[in-house]
Amino acid sequence: MPIMTEPTAVSTATSPFSHRLKTWLAELRDVKWPWVVLPGFAVALLNVVVIGTIISLYATAVSVDAQSPEGTAEAVGRGATLIGTYASPVSQFFITILVAFWVCKRQGTAVAWYGLLIGAVSGIAAAWQVVLFAGVPPAVIFDFTILTFLPAPMLAGWLGAWRSQKTLAGQQRLYLASQGVTHAATPQAIVQAIGEHLATATVSQIGLWEILLQGAGGRPTAVSLLAAWISKQSESWQPGLQLTADTTGSLSRLAPDNSLPLKTIDLPAAEKHSWEALGARSGLLIPLVTPSGSWVGLLTVTSPASGGLSRGSEQNFVTIAAQVALVLDNLRLVAQAQETAVLRERQRLAREIHDTLAQGFTSIVMHLEAAEQALPSDTAVTRRHMDQARSTARDSLAQARRVVDDLRPELLESTPFDQAIARVVAQWAAHSGVAAEFKVTGEIRPLHPQVEVTLLRSSQEALANIRKHAQATSACVTLSYLGDTVILDVEDDGVGLPQQAAAPDGLTSGGFGLVAMRERVAQLGGELFMESEPGEGTTLSISLPLESGATS
What residues form DSSP beta bridges with 256? Predict the structure, then answer.
């Protein structure tokens, strides 16, 4: 009985040669033939121009020295033959390299095909030149003779394509390094991007240094290593490493607009030892200078080889250094902005705590002390003070939560601004027992939220100061709208302030409340005035532009 078997699929791995062949054929399909034919014939025309120019110069030189016209013509003929025979192929070879390089760099793809095909077309054009100018029968170039015109031009085209491929690869590496540097958030990320894409086999370390001290012309006299890229692990190149002009004299030779290549063999003994201790026998020092001319750091590229870096590699590092300077400067500005933001946030919290919690705690203490004094004889007064202390404690707790959440005062979210000020005045009068009046003059206009918060907090602080210090029997709060300005006036009939405290400079030497008030107003481009005479009360006036919050 025959055994039945099912056919099985046999998979064979594609050979590298087969894969490469398919890739080449796919690239050939993408070739734009006008960029092959026209440059190929352009090579032939340029070669004719070059050779014609050489023959003309030769003929001019011969005619000066010749004794007779016949001798001149014979000498020119021999020279033209020699130039056409030997100089023309050489000229065509180098012109083909240049044209193929230009075309391949422009196209960017299938560069090998472009180079070979341009060389082939230029070889065929050279064959036709021989037919036209040398009197050779056209049938000759249709046999195997034409093959003798192709190898040299095709080799030249391939060399041009190879050179353009290296150039394109270098541009790609520089582009990738630039992208990495642009998106780097730390100095280590900067040198990592540079090392991954631009470091050649001869580069061992790339260092990014911050300037500790500067001498004449801004030249660094002491630098500290911020970050380093190292091809092989080295304990020497660690952040915090410092170089000084005393041991590393090259620092004093730096110029802001030029890089400084160095070879340790040419350096003084002390500096030579300093660099060799870091595993460097040659290198490049590149100043990091912003377009405004300020030094922001130093980029070093070192190599254990004594021959130094190639010209192209040096140029790549110098090019990327300009971008590194900008990124470092931006990182510095971002760090400063973050520090400033932290400081401002601390100041904001201090103001908010003073304007809300501190005042609330003061009110609670005063009510508790009043309740304690009323005990045990007057329970009704005690209960009233306890209720007010409890209410103030709840309000302070709500305000504390809002300060943490960085929200606007709850009063401004639920009430129009002028009504919110009126409620603040009414509540203050009820708690303090001082008669208070609130007035609005002018046409009420919408205010920026920051202006509203500043005026609300300032009115609370001013009323709190009246309650604590003024010994007043009445107070008046006036909100005035005058054109593009809003003015808040807080007046009392209390004991007034000493002259030094009422003066503008006295605002900075008083309690935190006045200082915070002044800072709030100044940040919005406004002005704060205070007038007071002993025994005649005090007037506090704040004026703010209506749109100052938006502009600030």
Answer: none
E strands, 138-219, in order = 205-214
3-class SS at 245? coil
The number of beta carbons lying within 10 Å of the beta carbon of residue 254 is 20
Q: Domain total for the chain?
A: 3
Q: List the pLDDT tens digit at each of the 552 positions of the chain.
A: 344 444 444 444 456 777 777 777 777 888 888 998 999 889 988 988 888 888 888 888 777 665 567 667 777 778 777 877 788 888 889 999 999 999 988 888 888 888 889 888 988 888 777 766 655 566 655 555 566 678 888 999 899 989 988 888 888 888 998 999 988 888 899 999 999 998 888 888 999 999 888 887 778 889 999 999 988 766 678 888 888 888 888 888 888 888 889 888 888 888 888 888 888 889 899 999 888 888 888 999 998 888 888 888 889 999 999 999 998 888 888 777 777 766 776 776 777 677 667 777 788 888 888 888 877 777 788 888 888 888 878 877 777 766 655 445 666 767 888 898 999 999 888 888 889 999 999 988 888 888 888 898 888 888 988 888 888 999 999 999 998 899 999 999 988 876 544 444 444 334 456 777 887 788 888 899 888 888 889 999 999 988 654 444
451, containing H or E segment: helix 449-465
Long-range contacts, 224-232 (Cβ 8 Å, 24+):
226/187, 226/188, 226/297, 227/186, 227/187, 227/188, 227/190, 227/191, 228/191, 229/191, 229/192, 229/194, 229/195, 229/196, 229/199, 229/205, 230/204, 230/205, 231/195, 231/199, 231/203, 231/204, 231/205, 232/204
Contacts of 499 (CB under 8 A, 6+ apart): none
Alpha carbon separation from 346 to 341, 359, 517 (Å, rounded): 9, 18, 15
CA separation (Å) from 421 to 285, 412, 427? 64, 9, 10
d(Cα 430, Cα 93) in Å, to the nearest integer? 102
Residues in contact with 413: Cβ distance below 8 Å, sequence separation at least 6, in sequence order: 407
Structural element, H or E, at residue 243: strand 242-244
Residue 409 included in any domain? no
Give the Cα separation of 363 and 504 in Å (integer).
Answer: 28
Phi, psi of 301 (to 5 degrees): -125, 120
Secondary structure of residue 58 in the 3-state scheme:
helix
Q: Which domain, by its residues, includes 256?
A: 185-334
Domain edge (last residue) among 334, 356, 389: 334
Query: Are 255 and 323 contained in the same domain?
Result: yes
Distances (CA, A) of 116 to 39, 156, 167, 497: 12, 8, 18, 95
What is the rounded CA–CA span in Å between residue 415 and residue 337? Answer: 35
Q: Are 268 and 249 contacting, i.e. CB atoms less than 8 angstroms apart?
A: yes
* Same domain, yes or no: 128 and 241: no
Which token pair is 270? 């002390």
Q: At 487, which CATH number?
A: 3.30.565.10
